[in-house]
Amino acid sequence: PDRMSTSLRPRRPAPADRRQPRAKPTTAREMLVAALAHGALALIGAVAISMIAMLVFWILASGGSGSAADAIGSGALVVLAACHGGLRIDGSEVTVVPLGLTLLVAMPCWRAGLALGGAVPRGLGLARRLQLLAASATAFALLAGLLAVVVRVGSVQARAVPTVLGAFLLLLVAAAIPF
Predict the structure, then answer these.
(1) HEC-encoded secondary structure of the chain
(2) What are phi and psi of 16, to 5 degrees?
(3) Contact of 79 with 146, CB cutoff 8 Å
(4) pLDDT band (50, 70, 90) for residue 67
């Protein structure tokens, strides 16, 4: 049967998309680079969100006094604490488990797993997928450890080794769900 158009206007073809679809990584090196990039971007995203929030709170609460660098450093320390690494305050070690903040940090990790799962070929074996997930978690953890060593706000600093272990497990678990 003949289909009749319900519109009086003729249909125009859709405009051509100028962007070329991204090719999925096919070599082992390309997949490893994609995994490392997704892990690094997950930490960068979590830290950026936290730093922006801390900067806004600093502006609202400080009335212009204090240091913006302390607010930005505090944002990084919040993310590191959310990785369950603990903090060192005046030489005393404090371990906190901020579950709500952990969920906020887990969201970029979950997104990294989703993006990595979409970036690798579908027929990839389970062992190779787990290796890529571990590589992504390693990048996330090493960058978190670097932040733990570098960032200090007054007498507060994150503990590096527990932060690396906690960050590795956080990305591994959160990214494995959609991956």
Answers:
(1) CCCCCCCCCCCCCCCCCCCCCCCCCCCHHHHHHHHHHHHHHHHHHHHHHHHHHHHHHHHHHHCCCCCHHHHHHHHHHHHHHHCCCCEEECCEEECCCCHHHHHHHHHHHHHHHHHHHHHCCCCCCHHHHHHHHHHHHHHHHHHHHHHHHHCEECCEEECHHHHHHHHHHHHHHHHHCCC
(2) -70, 135
(3) no
(4) confident
- For the sheet containing 152-153, what is the strand order? 92-94, 87-89, 156-158, 152-153
pLDDT digits (tens, 9 = 90+) for 17-52: 566 556 666 788 888 898 999 999 999 999 888 888
What is the widest separation between alpha-carbon atoms in the chain? 82
Report yes or no: 68 and 55 within 8 Å, Cβ to Cβ: yes
Amino acid symbol at 103: L
Q: Which residue has the tokens 């960068």?
A: 44
Nearest to 142 by CA among 171, 113, 112: 171
Q: Which residue type does 66 have?
A: G
Q: How far is CA 122 from the centre of its chain?
A: 23
In angstroms, rounded to a whole number, what is the distance separating the alpha carbons of residues 12 and 64? Answer: 56
